[in-house]
């Protein structure tokens, strides 16, 4: 098994109030997972992520729900041992505190949104 090579793209300040084509702001890099942060705040973040074929993010847990939307290709999202295949345009909410990993059987791009505040307001 080859070692995972994650790359965090240089921080860019995206121009506010300007339309973006998210699928075009992140590139595929051979044998890599590339993460480009679009918005990063203490209350949450939005990232565009590309996965080359065969790459994955190892299993982890997060104290927050994570909304994932596939914007190019097909992804395998594994939540608490249950595998889900998502195609372009599909999305899923990864529940807080669940074990999850993401695999690229074929290359794909996704948007990940994490909101870190507001949990105390939910009844």
How is this structure best described in words?
The chain is mainly beta and 123 residues long. The chain has a single domain (6-11, 22-117), classed as Jelly Rolls (Sandwich), CATH 2.60.120. Helices cover 3% and strands 50% of the residues. It has one helix at 22-25, and strands at 6-8, 33-41, 44-51, 56-60, 66-79, 82-87, 91-94, 100-103, 108-115. The longest helix has 4 residues, at 22-25.
Strand count, sense and barrel status of the largest sheet are: 9 strands, mixed
CATH architecture assignment: Sandwich
CATH class: Mainly Beta
Provide the β-strand percentage band. over 45%
The global form is globular
Counting helices, strands and paired strands, the structural category is mainly beta
- Helical coverage, percent range: under 10%
Radius of gyration: 14 Å
Average pLDDT: 89
Count of extended strands: 9
Low-pLDDT stretches are none
- Write the H/E string, N to C: EHEEEEEEEE
The overall number of domains is: 1
- Enumerate how many helices there are, as a single number: 1
CATH topology: Jelly Rolls
CATH superfamily: Jelly Rolls
The end-to-end span amounts to: 45 Å
Could you list some keywords that capture this structure?
about 120 residues, mainly beta, Jelly Rolls, nine-stranded mixed beta sheet, 9 strands, about 5% helix, about 50% strand, globular
